[in-house]
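[Meeting: bench + compute handoff]

Bench side (C.D.) handed over the final construct sequence. Compute side (W.E.) agreed to return the predicted structure before the next meeting so the bench team could plan truncations. Sequence as handed over:
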Amino acid sequence: MGITVYAYSVDPAASTFTGFGNSIEGVVEELRKVRAEIALEDDYEVPVSEVYAFDLYRPDRDQLIAVLSGDADLGDLILKNKRLVMTEPPVSA
């Protein structure tokens, strides 16, 4: 059985996660700070952002060896059951 961790993606079109945390509240707070900075500095409308929950599993020895050998990505091995838990609407600068 895994534990739940949360991740946010400022721009889901980029298909990468910007940050991870162990509570949804902490991840949402960080996401909002990052979005506010982007809106101020870059002077453009920040797109819809997303927060996801994952089940996090402890890697076994073979998985760690695969990561160290460059044959696997650790996130792909230990983050399972991705699910969207909230969206943050666009914010105009």
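W.E. noted at the follow-up: The chain has a mean pLDDT of 88. C.D. will use this when planning the next construct.
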